[in-house]
Recover the amino acids of this structure.
């Protein structure tokens, strides 16, 4: 894509009402635009990132036999009354509104009440189970104070998967498979996530969060320096410096961002909707359920919180809007011609490239390139052409190198 065609622009000033790194950099770089607190428009560059995160999520959900669907965001009051959640948490979490004839509706902040009766229409026998369905959809939550940029909004992207099983043993087996799929998602997006025990509520002793350690995190995690023990501060009974209850190692403390969670639902929602199946002996049994959530927009924001410097964002190659940022410096027609040709060659080789063909100064172009944070930067200038080369630099490294023009496509592929 030619940067001169991009309708968005970078801005120098930090947004006055944004304190989070992710929102400040995304807005400055023209990836998102803030409509109001907790609500953002995703602009061309930002949407490319979000779509790549979703693609990774979809690929890993397919590995664990997740079937993609899309459920309505606008839901009737009656389904929430069946589980008691119209009243509690009710308007504390859900946006509730009235339509014509004073009919009550709620905007979906989660979808157990929708997916359970939906799957119930098709699952009748033990032969129909297990089933796992998921969607990627915008959710709406009536946050008391939207903050942390795209990490905590009133409207946000969410992948929610729901699994349905014959018994708890089968549910727990799938639950463990989902852990591996989730870790793969985060690793592929450039995040080192840790599985952290959290409250299981009425369902089990624990649920599990996927936390990314960073000083900008809102959550507190206590973890062992030797084994995989890790719990959030809501349930942890040991503190920093204590001995690990699992292996005797030392307990450490870290700030973290929650990027996903998984939860055993068991029969809570199947009971509410009288969802049963007929077993091999012709007897009715309750369906066992689990739920599994990842926020693609939250993943995107977390990547920025982890991967940035004082110049801008540093995108992992897997989710970067473009792999390469091509710049030409100077006003010489030959430099422009060589850059145009290189742009075409990169595209023909299947390399995603953002080409800064604007008539701007070298300082503006280089500063914008650092802010946008593409994994690789290629600079064509009078100095490099004198050596029939280009300047090549990885965004996460300080070192620059000269590479012959006829070798750059090979290096990038």
């Amino acid at each position: 894509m030619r940067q001169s065609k991009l309708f968005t622009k970078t801005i120098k000033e930090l947004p006055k009402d944004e304190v989070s790194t992710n929102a400040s950099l995304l807005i400055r770089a023209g990836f998102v635009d803030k409509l109001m607190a907790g609500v953002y428009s995703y602009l061309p560059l930002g949407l490319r990132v979000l779509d790549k995160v979703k693609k990774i999520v979809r690929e890993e959900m397919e590995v664990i036999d997740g079937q993609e669907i899309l459920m309505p965001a606008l839901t009737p009051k009656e389904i929430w009354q069946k589980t008691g959640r119209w009243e509690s948490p009710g308007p504390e979490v859900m946006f509730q509104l009235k339509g014509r004839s004073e009919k009550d509706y709620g905007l979906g902040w989660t979808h157990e009440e929708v997916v359970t009766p939906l799957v119930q229409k098709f699952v009748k026998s033990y032969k129909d189970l297990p089933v796992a369905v998921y969607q990627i959809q915008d959710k709406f939550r009536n946050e008391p104070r939207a903050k942390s940029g795209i990490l905590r909004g009133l409207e946000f992207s969410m992948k929610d998967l729901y699994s349905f099983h014959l018994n708890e043993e089968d549910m727990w087996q799938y639950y463990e498979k989902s852990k591996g799929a989730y870790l793969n998602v985060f690793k592929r997006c450039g995040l080192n996530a840790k599985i952290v025990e959290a409250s299981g509520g009425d369902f089990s002793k624990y649920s599990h969060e996927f936390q990314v350690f960073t000083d900008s995190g809102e959550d507190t995690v206590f973890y062992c320096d030797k084994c995989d023990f890790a719990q959030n501060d809501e349930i942890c009974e040991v503190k920093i410096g204590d001995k690990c209850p699992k292996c005797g190692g030392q307990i450490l403390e870290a700030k973290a961002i929650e990027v996903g969670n998984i939860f055993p639902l068991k029969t809570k929602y199947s009971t509410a909707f009288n969802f049963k199946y007929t077993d091999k002996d012709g007897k009715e049994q309750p369906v066992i359920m689990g739920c599994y959530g990842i926020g693609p927009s939250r993943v995107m924001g977390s990547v920025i919180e982890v991967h940035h410097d004082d110049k801008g964002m540093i995108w992992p190659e897997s989710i970067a809007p473009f792999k390469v940022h091509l710049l030409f410096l100077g006003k010489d027609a030959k430099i422009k011609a060589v850059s145009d040709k290189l742009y075409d060659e990169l595209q023909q080789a299947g390399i995603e490239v953002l080409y800064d063909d604007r008539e701007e100064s070298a300082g503006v172009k280089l500063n914008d390139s650092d802010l946008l944070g593409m994994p690789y930067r290629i600079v064509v200038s009078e100095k490099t052409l004198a050596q029939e080369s280009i300047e090549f630099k990885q965004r996460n490294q300080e070192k620059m190198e000269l590479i012959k023009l006829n070798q750059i496509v090979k290096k990038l592929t």
